[in-house]
């Protein structure tokens, strides 16, 4: 489990819209982490929270369709 895995997921979501949409539609952090872990990422809710806090981001989705502002754009 690692914060690097969180960063890898957020970077992939920043460049891949189809990938990102699956996560934008999840409103519970535990479900977000569960999906990420099932797709080969390895981190906990605590590690997700740490990375979001370090990046100054919040988890909540906004808009319709829902979108998260957590994605890292290259």
Q: What does the model show?
A:
The chain is mostly helical and 74 residues long. The protein has one domain. The protein is 57% helix and 5% strand. It is built from four helices and two strands; from the N terminus they run ααααββ. It has helices at residues 3-15, 17-24, 29-38, 45-55; strands spanning 61-62, 67-68. It has a two-stranded antiparallel ribbon with strand order 1-2. A hairpin with a 4-residue loop joins strand 1 (61-62) and strand 2 (67-68). The termini are far apart.
Write the layout of secondary structure elements.
Layout: H1 3-15, H2 17-24, H3 29-38, H4 45-55, E1 61-62, E2 67-68
Q: Are there runs of 5+ residues with pLDDT below 50, and where?
A: none
In the residues, how many domains can be counted? 1
Q: Oligomeric form of this entry?
A: single chain
Strand content: 5-15%
Strand order of the largest sheet: 1-2
Mean pLDDT: 95
Order of helical and strand elements: HHHHEE
**Number of helical segments with 4 or more residues:** 4
| Rg, Å, rounded | 11 Å
Shape: globular
Give the biggest sheet.
2 strands, antiparallel
Task: Please give the alpha-carbon distance between the first and last residues.
Answer: 24 Å
Question: SS-based structural class?
Answer: mainly alpha
Estimate the helix proportion, in percent.
55-70%
Number of strands: 2
Task: Considering the chains and any ligands shown, give keywords for the structure.
single chain, 74 residues, mainly alpha, 5% strand
